[in-house]
Amino acid sequence: MKIVLCDDDRNSLEQMAENVKEVAPEAEIYYYISVKDLIESRKVFDIAFLDIEMDNNNDGFKAAKYVKEKNNDCIIAFFTNYDSYAREGYNYRAYRFILKDEGTQLIRHHFSETIKEYYRVTGRISLISGVGKRIVSIKNIMYIQMKDHYADVYLSNGDKCLWRKPLYSMEPYLWGFNFERCHNSYIVNMEYVKEKVKNQFILKNGTSLKIGRTYMKAINDKYMNL
Fold first, then answer.
1. If pLDDT is split at 50, 70 and 90, which confidence band does 121 have?
2. Residue pair 142/153 in contact by the 8 Å Cβ criterion
3. Which of 67, 56, 57 is nearest to 94 (CA)?
4. Separation CA 35–CA 55 (nearest Å)
5. Residues 6+ apart with CB under 8 A from 149
6. pLDDT at 116
7. N or C: which end of the chain has fewer CB within 10 A?
């Protein structure tokens, strides 16, 4: 994941970089003090945090145009001292507008939410493995076993990771993929289901997952051929 920061205030730029490192230590971070330097870099970015008001005008929109031309899926968040730029900013599909005087904690929250949006849009999530954080493609998840406020995530290569989120926070990441809740404890990726035998799903690797009574009718109605 490549993140770019662009602000003509060097102190602000350094503070932004520190905040991004806190919430995304795994990211490659690039920062520029002018739009000209950003454009001349010719780099492609996944996430852009851009000050709207640079060089005494709204050159942040010029920076946004550049990053979108290089990568139309780039997630953009604008920094500004005013909220009057919002309407024009949405022409660049800006995900978020961050007021510079909101305070460190709230600004860091905006950074975190913008990075989460990148993972959601690209179909990837950040999980915890034995060696630290790990970025995983959602399509490689076989099934998820729910715990109290977290889940064990089982991958197609046999690895297991930890996802520290309750179910309601996980669901937006899984929309658009072929996942089904089949039990109070399990969410299964139907792409890895080999067959349904009575009240169980048999996965392609031989794992069996119980289908709860609450979910049986919906599963039978939707997947008659399993």
1. confident
2. no
3. 67
4. 9
5. 164, 165, 166
6. 83
7. C
Element (H, E) at 11: helix 10-23
Q: Which residues fall within 8 angstroms of residue 31, CB to CB, at 6 or more apart?
A: 4, 5, 6, 7, 13, 16, 17
Q: Which domains does the chain possess? A: 2-122 (3.40.50.2300), 127-222 (2.40.50.1020)
Whether 11 contacts 34, CB under 8 Å: no
d(CA 115, CA 104): 17
Distance of alpha carbon 49 from the chain centroid: 15
Asked if the model's pLDDT at residue 210 lies above 70, the reply is yes
Calculate helix-pair angle for 167-174, 104-122, nearest 10 degrees.
Answer: 50
Euclidean distance between CA atoms 146 and 138, whole angstroms? 16
Arithmetic mean of pLDDT over the chain: 87
Q: Which pair of structure tokens corresponds to residue 29? A: 């971070």
The average pLDDT across 72-82 equals 84
What is the crossing angle of helices 10-23 and 104-122, to 10°? Answer: 60
